[in-house]
UniProtKB/TrEMBL annotation:
It comes from Brytella acorum. The keyword Calcium applies. Thiamine diphosphate binds at residues 76, 136-138, 178, 207, 283, 465. The lineage of its organism: Bacteria, Pseudomonadati, Pseudomonadota, Alphaproteobacteria, Acetobacterales. This is Transketolase. PANTHER family: TRANSKETOLASE (PTHR43522), TRANSKETOLASE 1-RELATED (PTHR43522:SF2).
């Protein structure tokens, strides 16, 4: 097995292990006839060095709370991670419990990118044990990693005690040229630099190749200088195959406590492939049988072994390194936690609840009930009161806004809430208010990272700017993370700011996203009830849609109880017997249709009002309940919402009226906008009278 430079040697188990990562990755992509082999081949030395020698991680307990986190932001190189998970013997996790079976086997690697396999094309959280977050859209993992690092800082600030440094873990990220081009990585890096997250290290795979060819086509900046401007510590490793240099860079990153670190790794994509190394064709397509044969020969691989060959001693080598170190470190941590629990029982109980994704008793005891009031409150204002009532009794709830907390009313104002900032910026890492800055995309990605750490994260902005957050919202839903997205200024009620700030299609977009519950409450008490619902929702995100303008607080002695919100839609007011017309609305338009209903009743029209805060929750109810709210034989229906009517047709029915927005709004005082676009009592009554004649 004589080898060329960089190849495996019989007495070089480190190099043998590195090349096993490479060959497994090549073979899996080739068998699938789909995937990205080149980056796995290039980064295998850094992956080996980090996992085998540095990572504080126990393969036998991949959910150990104090483990280091590894994020593969270059998710297309998933075989790099899958090969490593297999070789290091990471155990499987089922329903939140570690089981005595491997997360991945060779057979799983052979099923790469196949239906129902444990090795999908990009790493997916909860799907494959050892995967810390779902990555695929470039930059997403970079953003998540900042949230993971912030969570460690927050946990340490709240729960570490003298002699009990329970939380001192590090977050590592592998990222590439594509990540560096995506804006979210810049937003996230800027945030991390400002916060001085010395527990965060990114490895930048600078192979200068993208799908279209050399990155010189579009990307010629000095990335290192950019990150120095972000206040990062920057190092360069000229050859990733120099394991001593990679190790030295990691150790230097550990010594820098007040800044995140960027290690720029110069690599050759498709390393070892005789013709395709260093070319775009090694990036996103199988190498081909001949090229794989040549690459394996360059590593000194025997020519007579089958595909997916694992040399004797490689897995044992990982167990002797990472396995033994991880078992020792995790056992020591659990011993320390047991002693901590005796000395600090209250804090230990909170930590156990965080680890087990449970809520503390009494979290909802101070949620307010609002008195009936014709003037009422903007739902952003009532939500501001509720969020403070909840957060003071849910100690690990934290969040903020994209520079809009005075407008979104999301600032936590109770004593001790504080702001998450390093001491030099007059805060502490224990603060519960996060200043995300004008960085909506990163805000969503960071919130996902906080949620991945067991913290109850919320973030906020204007509904129109949810456009900048589509990717992290989608990933929250895909990962089933209980992130709360608070979106205010939810309609043409924004008024003079005009169509650039008046959301039209955003509600439809959120409702079209699988796995997220969108709630648009109609008054202050529906806001309280929305929070009662969303906080115990532990396995899906919720988008809470709130108004800028005041909404009348309904008299619940006259109208139906607010508990109906949890069913998505409920009969708020109704005539006796079968109605001739049903008025439906969400949010700020509920008060409008109630006023129209009262006029219709005075005219002797048999009418019903349905408050419709959540399509998703309504669709979860059984058919009998849905029919009781919207009787199928009642054809007369009017749906009212200051947004695109898209989606309302399923409830308005064929021939039903929909009063919505088919334009982008206008800049004017709200009262003028309501008249211009037909959101008046007179218009609703007129449409309802027409509908009441339908039989």
């Amino acid at each position: 097995m004589a080898a060329e430079a960089g190849g495996a040697r019989v007495n070089d188990v480190a190099r043998l292990s590195i090349d096993t990562i490479r060959t497994l990755s090549m073979d899996a992509v080739q068998k699938a006839n789909s995937g990205h082999p080149g980056t796995a081949m290039a980064l295998a030395p850094a992956m080996y060095t980090l996992w085998q020698n540095e990572l504080r991680y126990d393969p036998a307990n991949p959910i150990w709370p104090a483990r280091d986190r590894f994020v593969l932001s270059i998710g297309h190189a998933s075989m790099l991670l899958y090969s490593t998970i297999f070789l290091t013997g990471v155990k499987n996790v089922v329903n939140g419990k570690v089981v005595n079976e491997p997360s991945l086997t060779v057979e799983d690697l052979k099923q790469f990118r196949q239906i129902d396999s444990k090795t999908p094309g990009h790493p997916e959280y909860h799907h494959t044990a050892g995967v810390e977050t779902t990555t695929g859209p470039l930059g997403a993992g970079c953003g998540n990693s900042v949230g993971l690092a912030m969570a460690e800082k927050w946990l340490a600030a709240h729960y570490n005690r003298p002699g009990f440094d329970l939380f001192d873990y590090h977050t590592y990220v592998f990222c590439g040229d594509g990540d560096m081009m995506e804006g979210v990585s810049s937003e996230a890096a800027s945030t991390a630099g400002h916060l001085g997250l010395g527990n965060l290290t990114w490895f930048y795979d600078s192979n200068r190749i993208s799908i279209e060819g050399s990155t010189d086509l579009a990307f010629t900046e000095d990335v290192g200088k950019r990150f120095e401007g972000y206040k990062w510590h920057v190092q360069v490793v000229k050859d990733v195959n120099d394991l001593e240099a990679v190790t030295a860079a990691i150790h230097e990153a550990h010594r820098v406590k007040d800044r995140p670190s960027l290690i720029i790794l110069h690599t050759v994509i498709g390393y070892g492939a005789p013709k395709k190394a260093g070319t775009a064709s090694a990036h996103g397509e199988p190498l081909g049988a001949e090229e794989i044969k040549g690459a394996k020969a360059s590593y000194g691989w025997p020519s007579d072994v089958p595909d997916f060959y694992v040399p004797e001693g490689v897995q044992a080598h990982f167990q002797d390194g990472l396995g033994k170190r991880g078992a020792r470190d995790s056992a020591e941590w659990y011993r320390k936690f047991d002693a901590y629990s005796k000395e600090y029982p209250k804090e230990a109980a909170e930590l156990k609840a965080i680890f087990e994704n449970r809520l503390p008793e009494g979290w909802d005891k101070d949620i307010p009930t609002f008195d009936a009031d014709p003037k009422g409150l903007a739902s952003r204002a009532s939500s501001g009161k509720v969020i403070n009532a909840v957060a003071k009794n849910l100690p690990w709830m934290l969040g903020g806004s994209a520079d809009l907390s005075p407008s979104t009313k999301t600032n936590l104002t109770f004593e001790g809430a504080g702001i998450f900032q390093p001491p030099q910026w007059n805060g502490s890492y224990g603060g519960r208010n996060i200043a995300f800055g004008v960085r909506e995309h990163a805000m969503g990605a960071i919130s996902n990272g906080l949620a991945l750490s067991g913290l109850r994260a919320y973030c906020s902005g204007f509904l129109i700017f949810s456009d900048y957050m589509k990717a992290p919202i989608r990933l929250s839903a895909l990962m089933k993370l209980p992130v709360t997205y608070i979106f205010t200024h939810d309609s043409i009620g924004v008024g003079e700011d005009g169509p650039t700030h008046q959301p039209i299609e955003q509600l439809a977009q959120l409702r079209a996203t699988p796995g997220i519950v969108t709630i648009r409450p109609g008054d202050a008490n529906e806001v309280s009830e929305a929070w009662r619902f969303l906080v115990p929702t532990l396995h899906e995100p919720v988008a809470l849609i709130l108004s800028r303008q005041d909404l009348p607080t309904l008299d619940r002695s006259k109208y139906a109880p607010v508990s109906g919100l949890a069913k998505g839609a409920y009969v708020l007011a109704s005539c006796e017997g079968k109605p001739d017309v049903i008025l439906m609305a969400s949010g700020s338009e509920v008060g409008l249709v109630v006023a129209a209903y009262e006029q219709l009743v005075s005219k002797g029209v048999k009418a019903r009002v349905v408050s419709f805060p959540s399509f998703e929750l309504f669709e979860r109810q059984d058919q009998a309940y849905r029919d009781s709210v919207l009787p199928p034989d009642v054809k007369g229906r009017v749906a009212v919402e200051q947004a695109s009517p898209f989606g309302w047709d399923r409830y308005a029915g064929f021939g039903g009226a929909m009063i919505g927005m088919n334009d982008f709004g206008a800049s004017a005082p709200l009262k003028d906008l309501l008249v211009k676009f037909g959101f008046t009592v007179e218009h609703v009554v007129s449409e309802a009278l027409k509908q009441a004649e339908r039989k």
